[in-house]
TrEMBL record:
Residues 1-31 are annotated as: Disordered. This is TRF2/HOY1 PH-like domain-containing protein. Pfam families: PH_TRF2_HOY1 (PF24818). Residues 36-153 form the TRF2/HOY1 PH-like domain. It comes from the Eukaryota. Residues 8-19 have a biased composition (Pro residues).
Length: 293
């Protein structure tokens, strides 16, 4: 029987600690956003509260310099307001006494709007859509107000100030507000309307009218001289009918055309000088802009 004593096991060498990048480095390098739950969004006439059916999130992309307000509906997909950092004039954080803070973002130009939907096959579809805010407020007003709890807002402020890119510092260091007007310029609004894909921009109607005015050709003194036709046309061009605040005005064009077709006035029964038929070929192209313009 062996009496050899077993010694203690050799000490194991612990693995070297992993190098963990700083929070700001990780966020700037990763394409994934940092997101925070929003209590309420307010832009102009539009106010949206978070609910169990439609959650609100602010996604902040430190690496790609973007801000996204996300409205995640349980059944209808995610509507998004996307803002590139270069479109931000200024930004400020206000901490209230009632435990609610406000993040305000002032824009140079209107943002972009998207819809993200998931399909049964696992594919995700993202498409550009028109302004879905009340009376297209996000296309008119510069200031976006996002309401958070004070503690959440403080984390957002710390997150943004930790980004190492100079562009974020430039935005934070500008005076708020940076613009004298609460609304975008008329040119910016027109550009946004042109970019919308809801077909409100132009309604075109092509009208082709062929009038064959036949005289009786009889030599009965009834003055084949003049054939007059009165044409009264009323075109009602209806816009898309969406409840998007653009008034969906009916554009009406009243067209009064009086065609005086003068024959040669001679009593020339049997001649082939074409008293028989007068033909008027009328081509009208009507470009009817939205809102009745």
């Amino acid at each position: 029987m062996s009496t050899r004593k077993r010694g203690p096991p050799p000490p194991s060498q612990p693995p070297p600690p992993a190098k963990i990048p700083s929070t700001s480095q990780a966020r700037n390098r990763s394409p994934k956003p940092v997101y925070f739950r929003i209590n309420k969004i307010q832009v102009g006439e539009w106010t949206q509260d978070s609910s169990p059916i439609e959650a609100l999130r602010a996604r902040i992309y430190g690496g790609s310099n973007r801000l996204v307000w996300e409205l995640d509906h349980r059944h209808a997909g995610k509507r998004k307001i996307e803002i590139v950092l270069g479109n931000v004039s200024s930004m400020q954080f206000s901490f209230g006494n009632n435990a609610t803070g406000v993040m305000e973002v002032e824009l140079e130009n209107p943002p972009e709007f998207f819809l993200e939907t998931d399909h049964a096959d696992g594919n995700r579809k993202i498409e550009s859509i028109g302004d879905f805010t009340t009376n297209t407020s996000a296309s008119l007003y510069r200031h976006h107000k996002l309401f958070f709890g004070n503690d959440v807002l403080r984390k957002i402020q710390e997150t943004i100030t930790s980004f190492t890119k100079q562009e974020w510092d430039d935005v934070l260091n500008r005076q708020f507000p940076n613009k004298p007007d609460l609304q975008f310029s008329q040119d910016a609004q027109l550009n946004q309307e042109e970019d919308d894909g809801d077909a409100d921009a132009v309604a075109t109607k092509d009208l082709n009218i062929d009038l064959n005015v036949v005289q009786d050709g009889e030599d009965d003194g009834d003055a084949d001289a003049v054939a007059t036709k009165g044409l009264n046309i009323d075109l009602n061009v209806v816009q898309d009918g969406e409840d998007d605040g653009d008034a969906d005005t009916v554009a009406t064009k009243g067209l009064n055309i009086d065609l005086n077709v003068v024959q040669d006035g001679e009593h020339n029964q049997g001649e082939d000088d074409a008293d028989a038929v007068a033909t008027i070929d009328l081509n009208i192209d009507l470009n009817v802009g939205q809102d009745g313009v």
